[in-house]
Amino acid sequence: MADDLKQSSAATVQRNLLTIPRLPDGSPRYARGWHMLGWSDEFETGKPVARDYFGQRLVIYRGEDGQVRCMDAFCPHLGADLSAGTVKGNLLQCAFHNWTYDGSGQCVKIPYCEKIPPKARTRAYVVKEINETVLAWHDHEQGPPDFDILPLEEYATAGWTKAWHRFKITIKTHPREVMENTVDKGHLLPIHGYNVETWLPVWNGHMCGELMWGTHTRLAADVQDDKLYVRSISHGPAYQYTWQTQDSAQFDSIILTAWCPVDENTLEYWFGVIVKADPRQFTPEMLDAAAQGYCKASYDAFMEDVYIWERKLYRPTPMLCANDGPIAKLRRWYAQFYTDRAEVDNSQYRNNNQDWTIYDLRDRQARVLAAQEAAKPAKTVTA
Ligand code: FES
Ligand SMILES: [Fe+2]
């Protein structure tokens, strides 16, 4: 692709910002749901970490009990950044006047005053740690999580590479573009070289996903009719698992993709892959090298999407055609995460596929594998 084209002009960014979800006061609204904050090993015990997400500064720290905590970082007292403070056991002490907070955001100690003002608290986020990733529950209404994300069963189990091969990048766009890309069937061939034959999108509540297969013209262009089988599930607005297997490949892969908005036009995006192969053919070192190579190839493929996202205009009423994929439905589904809970009508996101549900994709691996097996091209036997 041409290198001379820069990212969007200020005027295009301005136009895009006119159509992002906003609160009544005009400030950007960020999605309700679980958002990744980083890989587990980025948060060492006793070391506060500063991160800018959801349009604000956050402080994230792991206490001596091993739990990760996340709070709005500016001290309610005189506004110092709590990430410059000190972890004391499971508490966090501000560097400025040593007010001390617990993980719920409550000030529990002021060294020079016995009476703690009742409003001396900062906002805290519910944090969970799965698959060696740390996630926070973000909700503009500050309610408790209304859905959970199950850990990946395969992670850290026998046969799979031990830990994520991974990358992280910063992208100048709104998260709506990343989510929309997952159902944008029409871009798979021109951008990714993937010629989709079967496409089964499914939806339910906070989850959406798809089962698909087709021939891949780039991953193994020299193998005739080589098929790539993909099963993918989004858990809410920003955390996805994708299982991939390919006829010609000697290993299966599972991909984690997750993202978190930094501000109204910037997000951070994480990618992790684990792979599994026949141990009689692959030593653990060979498998790690394969996963690393796969990670690099995925990065290159992903950057082709990023190139488009960072330059495009968001069209609120796009001119769609019959085989574009369920982009309009995806937009309605995604809008639930930017809508007050009381107004969300989940019935419109129910599955409309008679044969498959999101739960088949999530829980019935045998059925998925049988469908993929049935779709495989017949082997040509030569005498
Ligand atoms: S600003 Fe944090 S204790 Fe004063
Ligand atoms: Fe894509």
What's this model, at a glance?
This protein is of the alpha+beta class and 383 residues long.
Descriptive account of the structure:
- Helix content is 19%, strand content 31%.
- With 383 residues, the chain is α+β, with helices and mostly antiparallel strands.
- The strands form four sheets. A seven-stranded antiparallel beta sheet has the order 12-18-17-16-15-14-13. A four-stranded antiparallel beta sheet has the order 2-3-4-9, with no helix packed on it. The protein has a four-stranded antiparallel beta sheet with strand order 5-6-7-8, with no helix packed on it.
- β15 and β16 (239-246) form a beta hairpin.
- The protein starts with 9 loop residues before the first helix and ends in an 8-residue tail after the last helix.
- 31% of the residues are buried.
- The model has no long low-confidence stretch (mean pLDDT 91).
- Bound molecules: FE2/S2 (inorganic) cluster and fe (ii) ion.
- FE2/S2 (inorganic) cluster (FES) binds at residues 75, 77-80, 94, 96-97, 99.
Large-scale geometry? globular
Order of helices and strands: HEEEEEEEEEEEEHHEEEEEEHHHH
Overall pLDDT confidence? 91
Number of domains: 2
Strand order of the largest sheet: 12-18-17-16-15-14-13
**Roughly how many Å is the radius of gyration?**
23 Å
Distance between the termini: 46 Å
Which secondary-structure class do the elements indicate? alpha+beta
Give the amount of beta strand, in percent.
Answer: 25-35%
Query: Based on the structure given, which CATH architecture of the largest domain is correct?
Result: Alpha-Beta Complex
Low-confidence sequence ranges: none
Number of strands: 18
The largest β sheet comes out as:
7 strands, antiparallel
Q: Supply the CATH superfamily name of the largest domain.
A: Naphthalene 1,2-dioxygenase Alpha Subunit, Chain A, domain 1
Looking at the structure, the CATH topology of the largest domain is Naphthalene 1,2-dioxygenase Alpha Subunit, Chain A, domain 1
* Count of helix runs: 7
Q: Tell me, what is the CATH class of the largest domain?
A: Alpha Beta
Measured as a percent range, the helix fraction is 10-25%
